[in-house]
Amino acid sequence: MAAPASTSIPDSPAGRQLRWFLEVTESLPIPVPAIEEHFSAAFLAQVPPDQLNVLLAQSGHSTLVRFLRVVSTTPLSIDAAVDPGTGGPPVVFFLAVDADGRIAGFGTKFVPLPPRADRGLAPVSLPRPTGVFAVGTETFVVADAAPGGRRIPVQLWYPADRRSARESRPARYSLPVTSAALAEQLAVADVAAITTNAFAGPELARTGRRLPVVLFSPGFGVSRPLYSGLAADLASHGYLVAVLDHPGEDQPVEFPDGSIVPPVPVDRDEALAALFPVRMADIRAALAVVSGLSLGVMVWGFG
After folding, report:
1. How many Cβ atoms from other residues are within 10 Å of residue 68's Cβ?
2. Sheet holding 91-97, edge to edge
3. pLDDT > 70: what percent of the chain?
4. Per the omega criterion (within 30 degrees of 0), is the bond before 29 cis?
5. pLDDT band at residue 92, thresholds of 50, 70 and 90?
6. Which position has the higher pLDDT, 131 or 113?
7. Residue range 144-163: mean pLDDT, rounded
8. Which residues have CB under 8 Å from 120's CB, separation 6+?
9. Higher-confidence position of 129 and 27
10. pLDDT of 110
11. CA distances (Å), origin 231, targets 129, 196, 208, 299
């Protein structure tokens, strides 16, 4: 790889690691002592020196790969675009940065598609709910018993009165910072324009029965908007669906007041066990609040 101009890469521990790496990959293999000198033990536990050299050798075009530019930087990441030397489109490499400012891991990202409007296409719409009810949604914040007053956003999806829904504004898919994060993650430029087939805050439908409740905790590393279609469909069949976000994991969590809890890089193998009691505390806090809502709900609780 050709070495980039020094001003192209941030002058930070991770930036200096990247600059060194781009220079030494002009001649493979990289000596193992040099790799061990420039990368942390935590990084090398994931990608041992021998494996790193094998990956580089298998690329088949390592001498043709050309650094193009740094696409974006944050305290937690560096995105760098490269020409892979295959005649194909540029590739964006994502470099995760640890608390010491050093490279903690890497992967590739899709190059974002241009906005659909620029291609003459309508905004993406979630699948239309299949039930008989209109769908309303509203987000509130609960606090669990953790020290420091941990706050958890909970988005309710519920069967809505159709007259009230017609008088309400369409519900947005996600808040601005979350939209930007998902756009980067999914390589889709116009996440904020996605339509939900739901409405913001209409009156509850009179179903003639108590509402069964589904309490929904997203998969690890997944934001709650990605489950909006499923939640809306359940609500259209008469369910009250409460979807949580869990702050302090590896996705940003955005609150209705605009405040943000930034993502926290974690070791996935260790994180799941450690985060389970935190997630359960979040769920119990949400359950306690949902149980107290004056909605005539029937809660399927936890033992």
Report:
1. 14
2. 66-74, 77-83, 91-97, 103-109
3. 84
4. yes
5. confident
6. 131
7. 85
8. none
9. 129
10. 63
11. 9, 10, 21, 16
pLDDT at 299: 41
Calculate mean pLDDT across residues 94-114.
Answer: 78
Is the distance from CB of 211 to CB of 186 less than 8 angstroms? no
CA atoms 246, 247, 251, 255: torsion sign = positive
Place of tokens 């790969």: 65
Asked whether the predicted pLDDT for residue 269 surpasses 70, the reply is: no
